Amino acid sequence: MTDGAITPKLFALSWPLVAGNLLQTLYNLADVFWVGRVGADAVAAVSLMFPMSWMFVSTAMGITAATIALVSQHVGAGEDREADHVVGQTILLTIAVSVALATLGFVFRHPLLDLIGAQGAVYTEALAYIEVIFLSLPLTFLFFAFRAALQGAGDTKTAMWLMVVSAGLNVVLDPILILGYGPISGMGTRGAAIATFVARLFATAVGVYILLRGDWGVKLHLEDLRPDPKRLKKLVDIGSPATLDGWARSFSAVVMAAFVARFGPIATAAYGIGVRLMSVSWSVSGAVGQATSTGVGQNLGARTPDRAATVTWTAMAATMALLFTAAGLVVVFPVEAMRLFIDEQAVIDEGVTFLRIVAPSWAFFGGVMVIQGAFRGAGITKAAMALSFLSRWIFRVPVAVAVAFTWTVTIPGLGPVSSLGWGVEGLWWAYVAGAVGSFVVAVAWFRVGTWREGVLDHDPVPAADDD
């Protein structure tokens, strides 16, 4: 990413990441599809565990966001051995954190389910599922570490192909282990978790082998598994804001879902379908953001920050153009988009309203995600985290409270102040406010240029007019 035409290289980096994100979604959809053949309690149990699983994934993504930044900048600077050292310390850190989380989760699994509110058959099914998921946490973290190491070096295809095989293995094992086949008796939700465990074990084992071989741009040296406090501290310092970023997104999703639920099952169903359609745009813009991380990191390592900025603007423009086109199709054909999922007319009508209000803002969401990727590639993960908080907790949630619900408060010196009371449509407009508001801030922040020095211990890059 440090020389040559930018657009084709961005495309080459991005499309395997898009495929990988969609395959990760396939993992979840396959579990829910086959668990649905067991019964509503089993589906409720798996659905109840999803926010918790996302928090674990967010933690893994936070650690590996630091890996992408450091590896890409070392590779761009031609410091391959330093990049390898970062990989070793990442493996060490991910093992330590994941084993600690898995142990705590397994020990406190019963109080955890009580806290979430699982009861009766749902409690039993959720317990069977989560016990195995906790055991698979180290595998999940190690695979994210492998993917981040190769991505920092500029290889996104290898992890994508591993995801293809792993997702395929999961899809094949799901019906066998969940419902039973031949001598294998059906295990319900535990079977879904075991299928995920086996698929992740395969992907992680192959990933570690690839890192030990070292033929894909970076190599895992066993001597690099000795703790290096300085490097570990840098990984934690850069990675922890990215972890908090993921947690903020997860909690805000729970809050917005709770808001929608207050308007009844029709609105909730329409919202669920609308968000599922939105998730495709997130997969695309998130993947381009990851590719931008690599491009920015490598160029900062090569001391070419102007090219890093060009990579970001190119990626942002392409992503927004694509998402504006997709949104245009959805706005023109909203009924057809909703009918892909449901035939109930009341839900379709509410879903059409949702799509016509929210879809045009997808491009702004995408632009923010690309700029967040640029900040992460520069190692400025606090800026990416701040944009997530701004989008969700400053613009979206407060706007939702102000415009969707009906309330009146008396403020001393001002008198009574009332909300707008737009109903559920106010929640849809809150998404628009979050997207547009955070986009304006993101562009302005990136143009300030405080990200240009990266996180390697180098002297500052002189400005073009500094002799």
From TrEMBL:
Pfam families: MatE (PF01554). InterPro entries: MATE_fam, MATE_MdtK, MdtK-like. CDD domains: MATE_like_12. Keywords: Antiport, Cell membrane, Ion transport, Membrane, Transmembrane, Transmembrane helix, Transport. One of its GO terms (molecular function) is xenobiotic transmembrane transporter activity. It is found in: Cell membrane. Coiled coil: none annotated. One of its GO terms (biological process) is monoatomic ion transport. Its main location: membrane. GO terms for cellular component: plasma membrane. The chain crosses the membrane at residues 12-30, 42-71, 91-108, 120-146, 158-179, 191-212, 313-333, 353-372, 393-414, 426-446. It is a multi-pass membrane protein. NCBIfam families: matE. This is Multidrug-efflux transporter. It comes from Haloferax marinum. The lineage of its organism: Archaea, Methanobacteriati, Methanobacteriota, Stenosarchaea group, Halobacteria.
